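Notes from the 1:1 (GR / supervisor)

We went over the backlog. Supervisor wanted to see one worked example end to end before approving the batch request, so GR pasted a single chain during the call. The sequence is below; no edits were made to it. Supervisor asked that the structure be written out right there so they could see what the output format looks like.
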Amino acid sequence: MPIGYLIGITPINDFLDRNIHINTDVFHKEVRLKLLPVDALENGMVPIYWEDDTILAANIHLTMPIDSNKIASINNVILISLGFLINIAIGYILARFLAWRISRPIVNLSEAALAFAKGNINVVDKRGMVDEIKTLANTLEATFIERARIQGELQHLVNFDHLTGALTRSHFHTSFDALLQLAKRSGDGIAILYLDLDRFKAINDTYGHDAGDQVLQSVVERMRVRLRGSDLVGRRGGDEFNVGLYPVRNRLEVETVCNELIALLSQPMMINGNVIVSVGVSIGIAMYPDHGDTIELLEINADNALYRAKSKGGNHFEWFASP
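Structure output shown during the call:
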């Protein structure tokens, strides 16, 4: 069977329907092909039939030529694809840049907010921030600082008496218990004093509550002059106070402090700028480990000792004595 070569072809999406030349050593003949989809053709041996019949014209070796138009189309596709890839690359770079300029500062703000929620104030790094985010960061920082200030003031009100600055009842309880645990580990002694002012009611009734407040402030100031930095001063309420002495080595050391407190608080004090008054103080004492090993028991025993001191006329101290 003669072998020929296909030397012309239509665009790939058309039907192959044109005159071709079949060149062989035997004959050269122009033929008309039957309609045949080009997408069904492949390089290689292909049977060729006469138009409108089924008679085999020849077996030809089919070679699919390269169409210059298609080359141009392929070039266009390559250029478009290359442009698309360049756009993707540019978009990625821009996204990373925006992430650094916007996302990172927002993450910093979030971290600062979380730290503040835990009670810490972190300085926000504002380097590289756009103006709008920097303004937001400054606003948040100002809010954090103001809230911290308010929380500090509220905590101070909870922990310290607003009039005298002495520890509140609850804060004294917590602080003394911490010292008690320390005393148990170290082997030191610790004492709790319950104090009640003598003749304070008369001053308050005679000169008014403002005068009474001045007396209470003077009492706390005088106690702080005598006490050490490791000691505690608290106000139980009204004209009642408590003192924690830590560390103490023996009873004599505690009694020395009590005598000095009684002498200091009995000295005359001026109120309202021109009125001299004087008060006394009764003190009840309980000491670890002699009178208890818990703060609750020590407080009860110091209160019982205070009652005994008041019953003996005041301006006096008493140790707790077991019934």
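Supervisor's comment: The first strand starts at residue 3 and ends at 5.
Batch request approved.
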